Amino acid sequence: MLNHNIDSRAILLHQNTQTNSVEITSHDIIALPHKGQGRMNYTLGAGQVFGHEQKQEFCDILLNEREQQGLNLLPDHLLAKTPYALVWWMPPQVRELSFMDKKGSPITFTLKVPGVVAAMCRGTLYFAAFKGAKRPSADTPLYRVPLPNLIGDFKFCMGNCTVPRDAAEAHIPAWEAFLWESRNNHLGREPLKGISSLDDYLDLLGRFDGTKRFPTAKLVATDATLGRFLNALERQG
Questions:
Q1: Which candidate, 34, 52, 31, places its Cα nearest to that of 42?
Q2: pLDDT tens track for 88-119
Q3: Is 5 strand, coil or helix?
Q4: pTM of the model
Q5: How are strands ordered across the β-sheet holding 42-49?
Q6: C-alpha–C-alpha distance, residues 120 and 51, integer Å
Q7: Which of 65, 162, 179, 225 has the fewest beta carbons under 10 Å from its own?
Q8: 104: number of CA atoms within 13 Å, CB side?
Q9: Torsions phi, psi for 36 (to 5 deg)
Q10: How far is it, in rounded angstroms, from Cα 48 to Cα 25?
Q11: Residues 6+ apart with CB under 8 A from 161
């Protein structure tokens, strides 16, 4: 309870319902003049807007991370981390990918897939491909991940899959399993240049089955680099 022995401040959160951006203001709690010995009344003083660093400090306090974790280096596979987003990368790797043809029969290929940038931001999963084997930088161009079920440049149809929604490193294996282990059954957006049907897609991949190669020349480019991708995620915060 408020009384003259307690120094208190009020924190207000203001969310734009169209952009989902959040602003934080801090206010003095001011005791109003009163007469007699009745209960004191209070009002809020003018607000002071939190800057980015103050927002981060406020989140650290709420999550109690500063005392528990200290100042640690990010693991090599992580690219960026905030309380609401986690971004990591996967190097090119040999994967066994499963599909369903038009007749509903399962078909599996073993391919060396390109590198992938992945993100979980505010409950939504994003995946993008990149060329090369080194850790991507801000200038690295991003491509569509060459898999079916794409509903956007960086988003996949989730179907009936359920994945963790909070941005915790412990969930990375589950998110990667969704990408690589789901059985793809419809094409979605163009996964590779010149591919307009599931039959054409499966025929192309069949030519590379077991060769530890992938048709990277056919990756579909986007207008994003890793830096632009991160900036877009940050605007969601």
A1: 31
A2: 999 999 999 999 877 888 899 999 999 999 99
A3: coil
A4: 0.71
A5: 9-15, 22-31, 42-49
A6: 24
A7: 162
A8: 0
A9: 80, -170
A10: 5
A11: 178, 182
* Model confidence pLDDT, tens digit, residues 30-44: 777 666 555 667 777
Element (H, E) at 206: helix 198-208
- Candidates 133, 98, 97; CA nearest to 114 is 133
Q: What are phi and psi of 136, to 5 degrees?
A: -70, 150
Query: For residue 12, what pLDDT is reported?
Result: 79
Sheet holding 85-90, edge to edge: 78-82, 85-90, 115-121, 124-130, 141-143, 221-225
pLDDT tens digits, one per residue of 185-215: 788 899 999 999 999 999 999 999 998 889 9
Which tokens belong to 189? Answer: 């957006």
Write the burial class of residue 180 (CB in 10 Å: 0-12 exposed, 13-18 middle, 19+ buried).
middle
